[in-house]
Model the fold of this input.
Amino acid sequence: MKRKWGQHFLVRERYVQRMIELAGVQAGEQVLEIGPGRGVLTRALLEMGAFVKAVEIDPSLQGFLQQEFAGSTQFQLLCGDVLKLPIEELLPSSQPARIVANLPYNVATAIFFHLLPWREYWDSWTLMVQYEVAQRICATAEGGKSFGTLSLAGSLGFERKLAFEVPPDAFAPPPKVNSAVVHLWPRKSGWSKEEEQNFLEFVRRLFQQRRKTLIGNLKQQFPNWFQQERESLEEQYLKLRPENLEFEDWCKLYERFRERGRAFH
Ligand code: SAM
Done:
């Protein structure tokens, strides 16, 4: 087991089946699998008749997978770090397509943000992640401390469902934390990729000190804009913290910033 690559392999078949059923994969569909490991999900996906493109970073597992699925014309292995491969290699060449993956927990959030701008290439994303990360992806402003940049990225890009929990003993070796599977349906935000990135940067900066009020964060992060609009911002947001604003309120605040503030200064 290589800790740096978050290797916890699913060993309870029941969870493999639940994940595949939830994903709704049909024969002939394309699936991107990130981190196939020893191929437990891969095998089930191939048995469903899917075309699986799998990305694995660990050279010893790459060798194992090449051998294991050598006879399958529906299997393609991409060797390398999913965060570093050219994006074109990951994108499907036909529709429908899905992502199904038990993500390496240490880079699950990075992978989520990395693929977010390209999300609509896939009809659904079914991801196993650490339970807290699943909660954060699916949280609304009622989610208290789970609610943050990851939740707003989730709202921006998807219809979301935290589908089920998975206990540590479903894996070998067992992780120290619980896991969960989220099912995500990509949707358009109405903004360009660049605008979405700017929105998320805006949110990230205002969540940097989440225990401070939103006004305090605005003052610190965007002093010029804050000074220009101080009165009306204070009137509208006084006493609110970043986690009290729902996605729609964040969009309104960002659009106001974009119209009047223009730059991140
Ligand atoms: N899918 C397998 C399963 O469910 O048993 C393995 C899941 S394990 C949690 C994560 C897998 O992702 C490991 O095989 C690991 O080597 C691989 N991995 C870790 N970081 C990666 C990266 N940056 N790019 C591609 N694969 C990665």
